[in-house]
């Protein structure tokens, strides 16, 4: 998990990548939050996985501004 000013910039989730079945990372930038796969490099919009959110995603999103989701 990387961080900037004490807040996580990404976290490993239990959700699986639709392309390769590896675990997805939830990651934030200055402008948005995405789901990305470190194994195959695919990235997905957060809204695609929000209905399946695990506790890692919920905890991560507590520190993200609403306008980035």
Roughly how much helix do the residues carry, as a percent range? 10-25%
* Total tally of structural domains: 1
Total beta strand runs: 6
Query: In angstroms, what separates the terminal alpha carbons?
Result: 19 Å
Counting helices, strands and paired strands, the structural category is mainly beta
What overall form do the CA principal axes indicate? globular
Largest sheet: 4 strands, antiparallel
Secondary-structure element order, N to C: EEEEEEH
How many distinct helices?
A: 1
Task: Give the spatial strand order of the biggest sheet.
Answer: 3-4-5-6
What does this structure look like?
There is one protein chain. The protein is mainly β and 69 residues long. The chain has one domain. It is 10% helix and 36% strand. It contains one helix and six strands, in the order E-E-E-E-E-E-H. The strands form two sheets. Strands 3-4-5-6 form a four-stranded antiparallel beta sheet, with helices on one face. The protein has a two-stranded antiparallel ribbon with strand order 1-2. A hairpin with a 5-residue loop joins strand 5 (33-37) and strand 6. The longest helix has 7 residues, at 55-61. It is globular and about 30 Å long.
